[in-house]
Fold this sequence. Notes:
The chain is mainly alpha-helical. Helices cover 66% and strands 0% of the residues.
Amino acid sequence: MVQTGMPVDPTTTRRRRRRWPVPPSLLVGLAPLVLFAAVSAWRARPSDDYPSLGLTVDSVVSALVVPEGIAALVLAVIVTGLGWWRIATVDTTRGRPRWAWIAPVLIVVVCLVRLPLVGWGALPWHYFALLALGVLFVGVFEELMTRGVLLVGLRRRLPEFGVWIVSCVLFGLLHLLNALAGAGIGTTVVQVVFAASFGSTLYVARRLSRGLLLPVLLHAFWDFGSIAVSATVRRGSGDLVAAGGIGLFAFAVLAFGIVAGGMVAWRDDRPRRLRRRWREVPRNPEAEPLRAPEVVPAWNDLRTPTDTPAGSPG
């Protein structure tokens, strides 16, 4: 072994280790979503019986466990190849204001209130076990794709308020694919609006918890209750009326989630807005400054610590 005698700078070594294989970019962030939409459109058939999705054991296995499990595995391989696990699943700063926690808490309340409406004896126990596994795959895949990889890409080009809006809208539009699988147009439109609103609460859950685990669990819990109630509730019973009332309450909860998501994203952009405001103030070289210029901290700028690798362009 040849010794060169050159000292090694530990800072440089540390910086090289932190550099990701693929620098974050908007196109790479959008790629998994576009790929998933293309594959789903290719697989969908208008003759598919979308209303029966998840109502039987066979349907849960064929429509949820197998395809969503494969999709989650493929996306995990992609994220591993990109080297984006850290930046796609963890935020370095915690979002504010704290009262925004009310939005994900209310989602949990809705999910818990729906559980007594599930006919636990109407279907075998392994139906609910497979359903739980299937919706967990759905949560992992969709959250890693939209609240993970997509957020990384959007943060390269947009302020956080724009990231919140675009990620929620794209998550909602993704459910337009249900129309190709046999869902009615009216039902699909409602699902798009519903999903975009739900996406705002899931965004809040990520920003406040600083990670992707809470959005995944909320997503899975929500889908589990929705499908289980649809599969077991008896038509013409009082449970059906109760389910409708809970649905109306859920829309109010999701509307609050939109307000909370907007506030969290707007607050995150405050340091950026202040820096821009100070840059627009003309300097007067003839006047002596009475005090040192105010330095606006960038601790809450999500794009700097989380999305820009060392050595890559800003």
